[in-house]
Amino acid sequence: MDLEALVWPDGVVIAFSVLIVQIATTVHILYTKDEVRSAIAWGAIVWLAPVFGLLFYMLFGISRIRRRAAAARQRRGMAPRGGTAIDPHGLRLEDLHTDAPQRWRAHDRLSGRVAETSLTAGNKIESYDGGRAAYDAMVEAINNAQRTVALTTYIFQADAAGRKFITALVRAKERGVDVKVLVDAVGNMYGLKPVSNLLRRRGIDVATFNPARLSWRLAFFNLRTHRKLLIIDGSRAFAGGMNIRKHHLEDPVHGQRVRDTHFGLSGPIVHQMSEAFADDWLFSNQPELDSAIWMSDIDTKPGNVVARSIPDGPDEPKMKTAMIMESALASARKRVQIVTPYFLPEQALLSALKQAALRGVQVDILLPEKSNLPFFSMTAMTNVRQLIQSDCRVFLSKPPFDHSKLMMVDGAWTLFGSSNWDARSLKLNFEFNVECYDEEFGAQMTDWVEPRFKAAKQITLADLKNRPRSHRIFGRLMWLLSPYL
Predict the structure, then answer these.
(1) Angle at 98 between CA 96 and CA 102, to 5 degrees
(2) CB neighbourhood size of 29 (10 A)
(3) What share of the chain is helix, strand, coil (3-state, %, to 5)?
(4) Strand, coil or helix: what is 194?
(5) Spatial distance between the Cα atoms of 154 and 156, rounded to a whole number of angstroms
(6) How far is residue 216's CA from residue 182's CA, in Å, rounded to a whole number?
(7) Distances, alpha carbon 162 to alpha carbons 104, 177, 186, 249, 425, in Å
(8) Phi, psi at 9, each rounded to 5°
């Protein structure tokens, strides 16, 4: 027998090996993807472009970020998040408000099981309109810090705004305050001088979130932390959507470039914020924080707001924030107000908005007339037609660019934080939001945004029809990339 005749040609061996890997990858896709569209798309890439598709899936299709987050939580002695619905220990809405409507009791239960955090009572929340008011309050808080300062943000520039923070952080360090700064690796590169280098040279304990390296971790480069948290002594905190950069300051010559809303918080909710920072700090390969120092229990109750923190990210098995938004829309009876700079919601949220409007709820959505990303305004308009046809009202605000992220329902429930209404925020970014059950605070925020709606222009179907054809075509093309914008 001629043994050489039994040896397969090299090309056949390679083709057979690729086929085996394609089959194994397809099995992995079927077992791990929860959305049929995602499974079909990845399957098509793997089979239509075998070599490129397999490499692309190995880099970007496998969610290794959850395993890394689970390992970080286990190092803290905490169980990894597995996606199973578990009622968190602690307060419920009916314990705090016996007259709370059933729809909000049901929403509270959903939020608790999704966010895996309990309600906290006795919180005080203050709102700040614009960077100057917010930055002054934050810098003052750092100047008054006695034990600890924890800061995490997406963008931190060493400009007119950032230098004040750098000075305050350095002074706090010199007073003996334990200072930790976590800045996103991408946001750290805004401007010519990475702020992490400046802080490190001045003795500040600083880390960058998810830096890019020429390794398999390069696949995580698209997963950014978009959270903005400042926590002082474990008892006073700030959160919202405001980065640290001069764009939020009013320019004496050119006026305000970016309008935003930020919040100061005190009370038990701060403990949950400290937990979120501790998770991020450990996730960034930093030493575990001493809970006795950084997360001491808060006995005082400075206010009356009932609130829950909602930390969210691609390491979570659920799209927490999106699910809570959908539940709040289902709970609406009278009015919904939404202010967001980026509006590209996926179909589930679009359906929830339309259903609320068709039930007779007044749904008002405020978007910037001109985005800081030129293509985004055109892309956002692709979803507006179906909303207007379902009786939603969409408004465009005049400059300055409104970067605020707010949602109010029936004046009784408020959501604020770092999440935008797009797939990047709700799927890919690490975000932090706060939901509040309080009619007084809800009325305050409703009054807060009402002038913005009155000053804005409501979009009609005729306006959409009269848009330049080039804008409509480009918007639809960019809409195909909306999960990554």
Answers:
(1) 105
(2) 20
(3) 45, 20, 35
(4) coil
(5) 7
(6) 22
(7) 40, 19, 16, 11, 24
(8) -60, 150
| Confidence (pLDDT) at 244 | 94
Nearest in space to 110 (alpha carbons), one of 384, 359, 431, 413: 413
User: Tokens at residue 117, please?
Assistant: 């955090």
As a whole number, mean pLDDT of residues 240-255 equals 81
Residue 256: name the closest of 374, 377, 370, 130 by CA. Answer: 130
Q: What tens digit of pLDDT does each residue of 418-432 get?
A: 999 998 889 888 999
Whole-Å CA distances, 403 to 131, 242, 248 = 11, 8, 9
Is residue 363 predicted with pLDDT exceeding 70? yes
- Which of 82-86, 177-181, 445-449 has the weakest average pLDDT? 82-86
- Long-range pairs for 96-105: beta carbons < 8 A, 24 or more residues apart: 96/121, 96/306, 96/437, 97/306, 97/437, 100/437, 103/330, 103/331, 103/333, 104/331, 104/412, 104/413, 104/437
CA angle 114, 117, 123 (to 5 degrees): 130
Comparing 90-94, 165-169, 254-258, the range with the smallest average pLDDT is 254-258
Q: Where are the beta strands (DSSP E) in 156-252?
A: 178-184, 205-209, 229-232, 236-240, 250-251
The pLDDT of residue 239 is: 97
Q: Which of 314, 353, 313 is nearest to 336 (CA)?
A: 353
Lookup result for tokens 């046809």 = 389
Whether residue 308 contacts residue 119, with contact meaning beta carbons closer than 8 Å, is answered with yes
- pLDDT attached to residue 468: 77
Q: How far apart are the first and last CA of the chain?
A: 62
The lowest-confidence range among 55-69, 266-280, 397-411, 412-426 is 55-69
